[in-house]
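User: Hello! My lab partner asked me to get a predicted holo structure for this protein. The small molecule is flavin-adenine dinucleotide, SMILES included with the sequence. Please write out the structure tokens.
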Amino acid sequence: MEKSIVKKIEEIIPKERILKELSDRYSYSYDASFGEYLPDIVLQPASVEEISLLVKLANEYRIPVYPRGSGTSLSGGPLPVYGGMVFDLSQLKEKLVIDKENMIAVASAGIITSEIHKKAEEVGLFYPPDPSSSNVSTIGGNLLENSSGPKGLKYGTTKEYVIGLEVVTPLGEIIRTGGKTVKNVTGFDLTRLIVGSEGLLGIVTEVILRLIPKPQAKKTMLATFSKFIDSGNAVTNVLAAGILPAAMEFMDNACIRAVEHYKPSGLPVEADALVIFEIDGHPLAIEEEIEKCRVICNKNGATSVKIAANDKERDEIWAARKMVSPAITQLGPTKISEDATVPRSKIPEMMECLYAIRDKYNLTLVVFGHAGDGNLHPNIITDKRDIEEMKRVELAVSEIFESAIKLGGTLSGEHGIGILKAPYMELELGHSLELMKSIKQAWDPNNILNPGKMFPQPGQTKVVLT
Ligand SMILES: Cc1cc2nc3c(=O)[nH]c(=O)nc-3n(C[C@H](O)[C@H](O)[C@H](O)COP(=O)(O)OP(=O)(O)OC[C@H]3O[C@@H](n4cnc5c(N)ncnc54)[C@H](O)[C@@H]3O)c2cc1C
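Assistant: Hello! Below are the structure tokens for the protein in complex with flavin-adenine dinucleotide.
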């Protein structure tokens, strides 16, 4: 980066928060997805005023700005594809206030999500969105990706809890959207527009979150099935019985085997699928509901059903699900993690498509996900040094997205578009993509904020990983 521009940056933030060395820049060249892009400079702004001045400078010199939280994105969201500046926003963490009376949390964008969970629960409140990365990802990153997790079915995603924001616009203005009231219908809902915008419409510096009362108790059950279709029927019949579980997580046979191989805990490796059901609410209600779940699973051909008798047994059940990610990384050095999502009733059909794609391209493909909301996580385990196999992976990924869309689903249930799914946006959105582009153009006329993301390059219709 030109010396004169660096000098101007040094007039805005102190030198110790400006990272110019190759080794530092390299640390910001990747996220939890695929591909490496080296930024020209990394800045660690500590206030909204600093961010505003830096963005104004970036506009003056047309320098790309890449906002970054903890870099756990699985779609390439914070990667500096055109070089320029990376803003490390994980340093914005001076504020975390839980307002018990109004049932809200006010947090700086760099606060780690699990800290909000913990502080809210200390006063009997609950912030439901629970991405499995919550111990490392920032609330800012969660918000811009509209993250969620197993509790999405009952409690919704991050967007359901964001009621106000402080944002630096792509032109460097500081604005506030929404506020501290749960009801707010004044004007266009800019809060919702910014949530899930993957850092293309503004840099979020502070968030106001709605909290709810913490459920009094929970019950957890593990059911295994020798036929995948039976597990799907059990899930549908639980919902049809008027029960809304807090979570219904499933793992396929390949995941069960991987977990058992990684850390044996007695999971049946011959099972085609397992489903973890978790019910929360009033202690008397959950006893009755979990019992109904057991009966429904048994009626639908479950080969085993175990209800956790205490916290230790509950943790053991969840350990299987939490071990999937580390376990499958043992199957190969490169993990391509997708989150194609289909209407719940289409899960069995989508599973058939996924296994057909696996066999057609001869790849290691495992599937786990959120059975309640149709959010599947097909993971292809491969080796990026094997160019021939990577070519097959590229074709398989395209077919996964095409299948999800054909079944009435979507490219992403929670991991966002970033770089990796941009080529397929038109396939899902058609003309609405043009409207989205015009919103971006109106907000960011110089296209400096997170350029190269979400919108496909001209003629780009397939992901290229090699
Ligand atoms: C092991 C693992 C498990 C995961 N599990 C889940 C899961 O269960 N559910 C789920 O939804 N996701 C999951 N993810 C994906 C990822 O953790 C989420 O997308 C998370 O919300 C990203 O947060 P982050 O702080 O790491 O943001 P980053 O990855 O740094 O950035 C994400 C996006 O937000 C933008 N951004 C970040 N902060 C700001 C800001 N303050 N202002 C403007 N733009 C900003 C970036 O430019 C980028 O586009 C997982 C990832 C890993 C590695």
